[in-house]
Amino acid sequence: MRVVELSGLTVRLAAGTDGHGGGKGPLVILLHGFGALGDDLVSLAEELDVPGGTRFVFPEGPLALHVGYGAARAWWIVDMNALAEERAAGRMRDLSGEVPQGLPAARDAIESFLAALPRLVPVDPKRTIIGGFSQGAMLTCDLVMRTALPCAGLVQLSGTLLARHHWRPDAALRRGMPVFLSHGTGDPVLPFPMAERLRDELRRSGLSVEWHAFRGGHEIPKPVLARLGAFLTSVFTRA
C-alpha cells in the first residue's frame, strides 16, 4: 500500500501490478463511513475477487474525530445525540429530504480530488467505479447524481437516500449505469426501508441496480463481498 497527499486529502493506494496501485488496470475508488479510521476499507483490496491488475484508491475524510479508539475520520459531522434520540423513540431515520451541513463542502473536496487523481495514476472513466460504505456511500451517490462525474458504476454499501430533491434535474442521463446496493435488514444506524427507497429512486432514474439485502446490521458481510467482486468483474469485463 502507498499513502500520499492529493488535493488536501490523505489517500491510500493498493493492489494493481505492484501492490501500491500501480499499472493501468481498472480503478475502484471507495470512501469510508463516519467515525471510521482512514484505512477502514483498505483490506477490501485483498478480499475482493476482481480482475488481475485492478487498482484501489481509498481517500480519507478531511475531518478528524477525537474518539477513544484512534484518529477517526468523517466527511461531515453527524449529530450523534439526535441519532440516539431517534433510536430511543423508535423513529425511522429519514434523510431523503435533508442536505446535511457539510455535505456541499465534502462533495467539493471529492470533486477536486477526482480532478487531480489523473496526475497521480492513469484513470480511464470507462473502467472506474466509485462508491463507499455508510456516509461514504451517501457522499458518492450525491456526487454521481448531482454532477457530470464520468464513471462506469456506483457502489452503495449500507447507505441511505439523501437530499433526493437536490439531485440534478437530468439525473436520467445516468440511465443504464450499473449500481451495486447492499443493506442489512436489521441495520440500527440507517434503516432498511430507506435503503429500499434509495433502490427504487435510482431505478426510477434509469440506473441498473443490483440489490442485495442480507440478514445483519450496519456491516459488509462476506457474502456481500463475494457478490461485489462479481459485480466489479462484470462491469470491468464489459468496458
Write a compact overview of the structure shown:
It contains 6 helices and 12 strands.
Features:
single chain, 239 residues, alpha/beta, nine-stranded mixed β-sheet, three-stranded antiparallel β-sheet, 6 helices
Percent strand equals 25-35%
Count of separate DSSP helical elements: 6
Helical fraction: 25-40%
Task: Tell me how many strands there are.
Answer: 12
Radius of gyration from the alpha-carbon trace, in angstroms: 17 Å
What number is the mean pLDDT? 92
Query: Sheet bearing the most strands, described?
Result: 9 strands, mixed
State the separation between the terminal residues, measured CA to CA.
Answer: 26 Å
Secondary structural class? alpha/beta
Structure, explained:
By secondary structure, the chain is an alpha/beta fold. The protein is built from six helices and twelve strands. The chain has helices at residues 44-47, 80-89, 103-116, 135-146, 192-204, 222-238; strands at 2-6, 9-16, 20-22, 27-31, 36-37, 55-59, 63-67, 70-74, 128-133, 153-157, 178-184, 208-214. α3 crosses α4 (135-146). The radius of gyration is 17 Å and the shape is globular.
Detail the topology: elements first, then pairings.
Layout: E1 2-6, E2 9-16, E3 20-22, E4 27-31, E5 36-37, H1 44-47, E6 55-59, E7 63-67, E8 70-74, H2 80-89, H3 103-116, E9 128-133, H4 135-146, E10 153-157, E11 178-184, H5 192-204, E12 208-214, H6 222-238
Parallel strand pairs: 2-3, 4-6, 4-9, 9-10, 10-11, 11-12
Antiparallel strand pairs: 1-2, 2-6, 5-8, 7-8
